[in-house]
Amino acid sequence: xxxxxxxxxxxxxxxxxxxxxxxxxxxxxxxxxxxxxxxxxxxxxxxxxxxxxxxxxxxxxxxxxxxxxxxxxxxxxxxxxxxxxxxxxxxxxxxxxxxxxxxxxxxxxxxxxxxxxxxxxxxxxxxxxxxxxxxxxxxxxxxxxxxxxxxxxxxxxxxxxxxxxxxxxxxxxxxxxxxxxxxxxxxxxxxxxxxxxxxxxxxxxxxxxxxxxxxxxxxxxxxxxxxxxxxxxxxxxxxxxxxxxxxxxxxxxxxxxxxxxxxxxxxxxxxxxxxxxxxxxxxxxxxxxxxxxxxxxxxxxxxxxxxxxxxxxxxxxxxxxxxxxxxxxxxxxxxxxxxxxxxxxxxxxxxxxxxxxxxxxxxxxxxxxxxxxxxxxxxxxxxxxxxxxxxxxxxxxxxxxxxxxxxxxxxxxxxxxx
Length: 418
Ligand code: ADP
Ligand code: ASP
Ligand code: MG
Hints:
This protein has helices at residues 16-31, 46-57, 63-70, 72-87, 119-126, 153-163, 197-205, 213-221, 239-244, 255-258, 285-295, 324-334, 336-339, 366-376, 400-410; strands at 3-8, 35-40, 92-95, 102-104, 113-116, 130-133, 137-139, 145-147, 168-173, 194-196, 226-230, 247-250, 264-280, 300-305, 312-320, 343-356, 383-387, 390-396. The chain is α/β, with parallel strands linked by helices.
């Protein structure tokens, strides 16, 4: 008997029929003698609908109240799933985040999980119940409801699995695993049988929406065996077959994985670029520009400082597109005059495309093949950023999909074996 956490995303919970299928699948695992905790998302479209309502009332919704609203989608899901399980004759109990409780910090709309009390969950499991915990939400030290950021149910599930020392966390979604890139953009993308934790971490942080980055961080920190698999298969498929399906995130790198130089391509349209023009080139300049940005709690991504000409230089960086206006406001208020720069110019329509692979550590020429491929497509690279296992480039966002398809082909990702 094992304790296993299942997570079902929005599409998987998207209709009454799908919820009934989730219940059938969970019942199958329970009947095989396992203790099951389920972490569902809101039904697909529901979180968007709730946020939309909030924005109709307040253009920039109050964060505390936004979390109050956005968290309700998952409350509906857990109740419906508990009922579906009961109709199949199982004993099930649903909980919201605050009932567990899932404790978080107080950063509304992007809270971090601090701790999870397992007392009630364990009590129910010991009595043979299936436990259903609402994803995406928690409660801060002052008992305010918080949410974990878009896609946050992944993180809820892996954190619950870590707290319970579950033997596996199964992330059921609308694709049958982690692919070489988003199959919606590149139909030739292939499923990876395994992906290393480090690669998954890079892919998630570089924009692959298949897993929320913090869920991958939790999986790594607590060594939670995590598998991404499809919820759209026959819920009664044989258990041993299901246990082998999808993509496993591994913490060990085997030789086979080394053979693929690039394992995946990630992309993100959530980028915006700002440039401070004609900044006096002297020590401390990066700090005087980025200090006020950090103080305003804005995350900076790629940074480039140009060669100085006649004592001045241009300083560019990217931020999340949501924080574009805020960034410009901070620069105009706290930086331009103070550092003696000429002005701020900005481009909110840039995208980041990244190639990721642990094989990049031991191979040369990977980045140059990337640049060659993009140049053959006539795509101008605006900024470059590299680490040991990834190379990212910033480009005009209208070329993003073309770039992803060309790179997918150039690196042979439609052919190599995982
Ligand atoms: P869920 O609602 O189950 O959490 P998401 O929509 O958050 O599902 O994530 C699944 C989607 O992620 C897929 O439908 C797919 O379009 C997208 N995706 C992006 N990158 C990848 C990738 N590398 N492999 C698989 N799916 C990906
Ligand atoms: N329902 C939330 C969202 O749409 C959380 C999730 O689906 O993981 O972002
Ligand atoms: Mg998701």
